[in-house]
Amino acid sequence: xxxxxxxxxxxxxxxxxxxxxxxxxxxxxxxxxxxxxxxxxxxxxxxxxxxxxxxxxxxxxxxxxxxxxxxxxxxxxxxxxxxxxxxxxxxxxxxxxxxxxxxxxxxxxxxxxxxxxxxxxxxxxxxxxxxxxxxxxxxxxxxxxxxxxxxxxxxxxxxxxxxxxxxxxxxxxxxxxxxxxxxxxxxxxxxxxxxxxxxxxxxxxxxxxxxxxxxxxxxxxxxxxxxxxxxxxxxxxxxxxxxxxxxxxxxxxxxxxxxxxxxxxxxxxxxxxxxxxxxxxxxxx
Length: 285
Prior knowledge:
It is a single chain. The chain is an alpha/beta fold. It has one domain: NAD(P)-binding Rossmann-like Domain (Rossmann fold, 3-Layer(aba) Sandwich). The protein is built from 11 helices and 12 strands. The strands form 4 sheets. Strands 2-1-3-4-5-10 form a 6-stranded parallel beta sheet, with helices on both faces. A two-stranded parallel sheet has the order 6-9. Strands 7-12 form a two-stranded parallel sheet. The longest helix is centred in the N-terminal third of the chain and has 22 residues, at 74-95. 41% of the residues are buried.
């Protein structure tokens, strides 16, 4: 198997790169450092020359240090999340190549029911269903463009974490703040996420949208209790409500939501309960 991996130096892309290398899979990594990914002709020629079995697009724009940056860098955000998705989709369709498009659960807000939003539910945190962050809006647009693409696995990630110390890791993020917003969310163990994505390719599962999150949901208070038990004695404070959080700590709205991963589980992939996965990661952190 041979794979072209876009964005291989980013947080998620690098997880894919190491995972594929460990499996002795030939992977051809591309990043903005060695190629203008928006140059569709050059990207098309490279993919043609490599002749991969699959393409993984883990490139995108999330903003640094967080999505607030997307509000002031809208052009880069649109190009990274929408324009590049169009380019990859066009190339892969022309070459009849199945590909993974990294997406996000941040296009939803709240929870439809105890299990959460399914892949069939329309985004409710998007440009079509405002208010939303600019980042979430672009991710919803990108999904809408390729939702019926017969070659696309649209893999939704949601608040990644694992046992490694990284600024993008949810556990690290919480530890770096003194005051937190208590919110209920689905989360994705990044290692299980990557494994699930590869499982879809390897087993030739049906293409389409997949919520790749750990089973169930948790809230910030529950996670803090785990942190206090195994990592730190730090006394975290909590914002009184959303109004206080947005008036003092954030420039744009945040998505807090629960996703239903039943579709993924029906493929036969075994993914762990979110609280168990979090606990194991925190113990190893």
